[in-house]
Specification:
The chain is α+β, with helices and mostly antiparallel strands and about 90 residues long. Helices cover about 35% and strands about 30% of the residues. The chain has a 4-stranded antiparallel β-sheet with strand order 1-2-3-4. Strand 2 and strand 3 form a beta hairpin. The protein is globular and about 40 Å long. The model has no long low-confidence stretch (mean pLDDT about 95).
């Protein structure tokens, strides 16, 4: 992931950490309850971070990737969903 994309997405995650909403995001119920996708686009492409921030102790980044199709690819959603389930199991 290019430096500019990492910086922009990191800034958005920091905003979430302090209680604000990211500039461009959408819920990802197919990943799990409370999961969201932050969207970022520049001249090099479209980049996404799927995270969950419904737990008091931390924001958990489930997946970060470059998006190459209009619809989020199923393998990326499945990977984030698997990590979400493992996170829930680990927190219990």
């Amino acid at each position: 992931m290019p430096v500019d994309a990492r910086h922009a997405l990191g800034f958005e995650l920091m905003a979430v950490q302090y209680g604000a909403e990211p500039g461009d995001f959408k819920p990802m119920p197919s990943v799990g309850a409370g999961a969201y996708e932050i969207r970022y686009r520049d001249t090099t492409g479209a980049y996404r971070v799927i995270y969950v921030a419904k737990f008091a102790d931390a924001i958990y980044v489930l997946h970060a990737f470059q998006k190459k199709a209009q619809k989020t690819p199923k393998p990326d959603i499945d990977l984030a969903a698997t990590r979400y389930r493992k996170l829930i199991g680990a927190l219990k």
